């Protein structure tokens, strides 16, 4: 299951992670987010131990969303060594997201 990321735990779980991190910025009311959600959950299971996969609810965690300039959702960012190394804005098929994540393993 994808890790619930918040304004409080984001630094520790994402920026200080020794593994690549895929972060899904989403909201309950966002239709496209509901399409991406199951893909994110699958990637969380499949890459457990190799990468961290988490979700940030932008309505509940506005500081993190603002910090990374999230204006459209879903936005998926991939972090490595505390830096954003890849980005996907909008819905993308699983193979696209998986390819982006694999490139940083």
List the helices and strands and how they pair.
Blueprint: E1 3-5, H1 10-15, E2 21-26, H2 31-46, E3 52-57, H3 62-67, E4 75-80, E5 83-89, H4 94-102
Parallel strand pairs: 1-3, 2-3
Antiparallel strand pairs: 2-4, 4-5
Account of the protein in words:
This protein has helices spanning 10-15, 31-46, 62-67, 94-102; strands at 3-5, 21-26, 52-57, 75-80, 83-89. The chain has 105 residues and is of the alpha/beta class. α2 links the parallel β2 and β3 (52-57). The protein starts with a strand and ends with a helix.
Summarize the structure.
With 105 residues, the chain is of the alpha/beta class.
First-to-last CA distance? 19 Å
**What's the number of structural domains?**
1
What is the ordering of alpha helices and beta strands?
Answer: EHEHEHEEH
CATH architecture: 3-Layer(aba) Sandwich
Portion of residues within helices: 25-40%
What does the main sheet amount to?
A: 5 strands, mixed
Give the overall silhouette.
globular
Task: Determine and state the CATH class.
Answer: Alpha Beta
Return Rg in Å: 12 Å
- Total number of helical segments? 4
Can you list the strand order of the major beta sheet?
1-3-2-4-5
Q: Which regions contain 5 or more consecutive residues with pLDDT less than 50? A: none
Multimerization status: single chain
User: Which structural class fits the helix and strand makeup?
Assistant: alpha/beta
Average pLDDT over all residues:
98
| CATH fold-level label | Glutaredoxin
**Beta-strand share of residues:** 25-35%
Count every beta strand, where a strand is a DSSP E run of 2 or more residues.
5
CATH superfamily caption: Glutaredoxin
């Amino acid at each position: 299951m994808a890790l619930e990321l918040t304004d409080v735990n984001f630094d520790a779980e994402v920026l200080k992670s020794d593994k690549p991190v895929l972060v899904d910025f989403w909201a309950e009311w966002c239709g496209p987010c509901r399409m991406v959600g199951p893909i994110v959950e699958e990637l969380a299971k499949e890459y457990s131990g190799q990468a961290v996969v988490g979700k940030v609810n932008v309505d509940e965690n506005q500081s993190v969303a603002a910090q990374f300039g999230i204006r459209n959702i879903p936005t998926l960012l991939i972090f490595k060594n505390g830096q954003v190394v890849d980005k996907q804005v909008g819905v993308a098929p699983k193979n696209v997201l998986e390819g982006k994540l694999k490139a940083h393993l």
